[in-house]
Amino acid sequence: MSRTVKTMAKIIDGKRIAEEVRENIASRAADFYGKYGIKPGLAVIIVGDDPASAVYVRNKKKACEQVGFYSEVHEMSADATMEELLEKIRALSCDEKIHGILVQLPLPGHLDENRVIAAIPPEKDVDAFHVQNTGKIMLGKYDFLPCTPAGIMKMLEHENIGIEGRECVVVGRSNIVGKPMAMLLLHANGTVTICHSKTRNLAEITKRADILVVAVGKADFITGDMVKDGAVVIDVGMNRREDGKLTGDVDFESVSEKASAITPVPGGVGPMTITMLLENTLTAAELAVKQQR
Ligand code: NDP
Question: The domain 147-270 is classified under which CATH number: 1.10.10.10, 3.40.50.920, 3.30.70.1110, 3.40.50.720?
Answer without folding.
Answer: 3.40.50.720
